[in-house]
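Hey everyone, long-time lurker, first post.

I ran two proteins through the pipeline my lab uses and got sequence/structure pairs for each. Pasting them in order. The first:
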Amino acid sequence: MSDGAAHSRTANADPDTNTEADANTDVDTKSDAIDGRRFRDVLGNFPTSVVAITTTDAEGRPHGMIVGTFTSVSLDPPLVSFLADRSSTTLRTIRAAGRFCANALAGDQERLSRKLAAGPARERFADTAWQASPLGDPVLDGVVAWVDCTVVQTVEIGDHLLVVGRVRDLRVESMKTPLLFFRGGYGDYLSSAALLLDRLVGWDEIGR
């Protein structure tokens, strides 16, 4: 063994530390190499509930946006969260208000979802019926359920902010099936589940 090899092994005497460092380097390298389009295409295979996050500004005007990242975080205390682009104007209003309501959209509310997702901010609530939650946030008519929250923490993660909310009130409004976002398109729970099953068993090949 050469002196150089012996010195190298002595300098890196902790194999656990080396393994972790090498693994982190490999992960970072692989992450940097992932194409954005491929990233979105693959993650699109994870169905997500379409949720409208709403709030009101200082003048009582409603604001809202669509997310596919709403999830529960903790049971005790009751916490939920969602991710939003840091450039979102609705996010700025939510942080200023310190509260928000998560509305689980129903399968028949695709048009409303598109309106809240891409429409001009001042027109998103035009002809949209809603009632004020206990905290004063918009609860949209016809939703499956809603969760009313106060903001307890925001965390910068990449190009998004993770917003964590403390649940103050919540309610199931209907037994409708929820609106889902799956493989780049909309669908309700039943239609998306049926499509996935058809593809898995090959039924979509019959008759071709």
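...and the second, right after it:
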Amino acid sequence: MLDLDALRARYRQITEAEPEGLWFAPGRVNLIGEHTDYNDGFVLPFALERKAVIAGGRRTDDTLVLVSLELDDEVRVPLADLAPGTQGWSSYLAGVAWALREAGHDVGGATLVMTSDVPLGAGLSSSAAIECATVAALADLYDLDIAKMDRARLARVAENDYVGAPTGLLDQAASTLCEADAGLFLDCRTLETQQVPLPMAEQGYEILVLDTKTPHSHVDGEYGARRASCEAAASILGIPALRDVTDLDDALGRLDDETLRRRVRHVVTENQRVLDAFEVARSDDLAALAPLLDASHVSMRDDYEITVPTVDLAVEAARAAGALGARMTGGGFGGCIIALTRAGEADGIGRAVADAFTEAGYGAPEWFSATPAPGAGRLA
């Protein structure tokens, strides 16, 4: 539970005034569609109730004062000194101010005090939550009329160009555009979206989110290597992106490199799984999502090679304990799994995974049952 009173108190301590507002943006779970976004493909995420919250107000000294409540850290950055490549937690907030100013928006100084209960390095988009909350805060503080998708794009610019993480638009779009009790079907080429109802409780299901506590980072070489391999394959095939593969067998036959073949197979089949999940979500029984989740995990494990032993064990243990389907979610190399369970069974399945971790000598995971939540906005 976030302590918003402590957030306001920290802001008052710095400024001797009340914050002009509180803004939030959620983390997200990607129901299905991993590493398809930067291949111009399809994704189907939903927002979490866990979120980043910022208490903010304007300053007249052209300085950003950035504070993390959890880290008990304060960073001061003159607007004139904003420069891509800056490291550390504050770069996710400073990068948004930089992106807004680079886009021509008249953004001045601000005090931004942040708190978040989105787990770090878990694949639940803690960075996008921070960025999108910052966009919401600065847009309101400086009376900027920016459409939701454009806000997501600016947050992505901050992550790509300022922080240096080569992510797609999935995380920021989900954090900004999602609605309660729905998933967001996003075409990452056209940026067309559609809200897809996910009546989990009505149909007697839950989504278990389990953090393996194996942290990952998108700023490392593995994520960039996967993206580069997809771009290389698309170039060989003579298409703009792997989304444009229409005959998988033909495409695989034209690639000599086995690694590229595996990467292409994952992206193309994962895109189809998103389209299939979109149709399932519009049907009367969400249980049909289960085999899609299972197939997605196998593809990420064998073809895209982005899972790790803790994640694979979590999926196997969840399925053995009664989960209908399970898969890793997020960029990979650690982080979280999700599992579709019957209502009332998610916590017991989480405990079964914890038991399996203990037996294997791994540290204890954490888990919760996820409810699709609304995207970024103003709390007060």
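Reply from user beta_strand_b:
Welcome! Quick read of the second one: The longest helix spans residues 258-281. The chain has two domains: 4-195+374-378, 198-370.
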